[in-house]
Amino acid sequence: MKQSTNSALEQTISAKVIARLVVPCALYILIGAIDRTNVAFAALTMNNDLGLSPAQYGFGAGVLFIGYMLAKYPSVLLYEAIGMHRWLASITAIWGICSASMALVHTNGQLYALRIAIGFAEGGLSSGLMLYLSLWASERHRAAILAIPIMSINVAQVIGAPVSGQLLDWTNPWGITPWRMMFIAEAIPALALAIFAYLWFPDTPDHARWLDGEQRAWISANVRGAQKAPGGGERWAVLRSKVGWTCAAIWFCILASNYGIMFWLPQVVKGMGNLTSTQTGIVVALPNAASAIGLILNARHSDRTGERFLHVAIPALLGGVLLVCAWCLGAGAAGLLCLILGGACTGCTVAAFWAIPTRMLAPQGLAMGIVVINMAGSLAGATVPPLMGVLKQTTGSFLPPTLLLLGLAVMCAGLVILARRQMARAA
After folding, report:
1. Phi/psi of residue 272, each to 5°?
2. Which domain holds residue 139?
3. How does the record say this protein sits in the membrane (predicted)?
4. Taking a C-beta distance cutoff of 8 angstroms, is the pair 38, 118 a contact?
5. Which CATH number goes with the domain that contains 136?
6. Which of 80, 204, 83 is nearest to 136 (CA)?
């Protein structure tokens, strides 16, 4: 009877956390992803207007992640110092202003500078929100809870790709070049969310008025991230952990594949046929829609079975193979189907992955572990899209960049198996 009561209490708490915190957090991830990646659609006309080569565009897309890496740890320290609501309001306002300022770009140097600034403002977003949700998510529901904000990255492309394409097809609205207008329009939601953040989010479960005393006590006793951790050098213990570094390498491979697709897919699709920007946006949305569905299904199955590692390795490998098949098949129904399934498999690994380090890392090392892992993901964003641009410019084909993504998928699967063995030895 007691176990049944605890289970019902956990279910009630999880439902409240999802409705009041997880879904709003997902909205910030969604808007941040649109503002971070809409340059991929702007590139359809911006590259010609600014005279950018594929290599220069690739560098401009990836240089954002230099700011991302530089801001990871300082942003988490700021989060811990001033609390969730002040921190999220501040960084959201800054990235919204910087995103709108992309409309003023006239040189590649200005493009690079603003991309770094956006990355710096957004740099701590994913780390901070993962750390914040670790205060509320129990082990039983962790992958599913983390899947919702992570899924919003894919939803951002499902929504943002058609909207961006439609904005690009406008004919000089209010005398502003369409790609410049796109940056302004898509930055406005971030500015509104900055105000919402300050008014909505409790800093800790103790500040959540919508939880009663019993529910707060349950979180304190049963949610690992909410447990008080000793200070001192143990915070840095993750830097000595082989498993922690393996997780960072896995995350590098996962995000390298995802960002490689995200920043280049519009140009790949545009090159497959005589499509308008709006049509290109609709086609680009399809793999991301499939990825969002796959992510939720994969996370739920991982939670139900308790298995985490194969839920990352197998989809990653399938995704890489299917992307190569899509290139080989080219335009047509078969190629599009492989592209959709490849995007689904590549994207659905993310939530199952985050259930691994949040379970394996000690509470006192969790914040630093999340920072290190996210910095590895930022490094992937800073290196792989530019490398794909160099390969495309050198060979004139998207086959070498696609093979690069396949290689990363194979590496990801191998590292996941290594992590499983490391955890088994440590048990």
Report:
1. -80, -15
2. 7-426
3. Multi-pass membrane protein
4. no
5. 1.20.1250.20
6. 204
